[in-house]
Amino acid sequence: MFEPGTEKILQDLRALVADAEALLAATTDHAGERVEAARAHTEGSLRRARERLLALESEVGAKVRETARATDSYVRENPWRAVGIAAGAGLLIGLLLSSRR
User: Fold this and answer.
1) pLDDT tens digit sequence for 37-65
2) 63 within 8 A of 34, measured Cβ to Cβ
3) In 10 A of CB 68, how many CB atoms?
4) pTM beyond 0.70, yes or no
5) What distance in Å separates the CA atoms of residue 22 and residue 41, rounded to the nearest whole number?
6) What is the dihedral of CA 37, 38, 41, 46, to 10 degrees?
7) What is the rounded CA–CA span in Å between residue 62 and residue 13?
8) Contact 48, 9 (CB under 8 A)
9) What is the distance between the alpha carbons of residues 57 and 64, in angstroms, rounded to a whole number?
10) pLDDT single digits (tens) 81-95
11) Which of 91, 19, 17, 24 is nearest to 56 (CA)?
C-alpha cells in the first residue's frame, strides 16, 4: 500500500511505540522521584509519537488514494498510451533481467 521505505518506517515506529508501552508497564511497580519523572516524560513523548504516527499514516494514505485516482483517470483518458507505457516498462525490465544472467 505504501512505498517500501515508508512502510518500513511506519513498522519501526509502531514497534518502538509498543516497546515503550511495554517498558512503561514493566516499571509501574518502581517508585521514586526520578522514576516517576522519567515515566511522565516518556508517557508524554509516547503520546505525541502515537499521535504523529496516526497523522502520518492518514497523510500517506490520502496521498496513495490521490495518486491512485490520478492514475485511474489518466489510464481512462489515455488507454493506448497507458498500454504502450506498460509494454515499454515490461520490455525494459525484461531486458535488464535477462542481461543480469
Assistant:
1) 777 777 788 788 888 888 888 888 899 89
2) no
3) 10
4) no
5) 15
6) -150
7) 19
8) no
9) 10
10) 989 999 999 999 999
11) 17
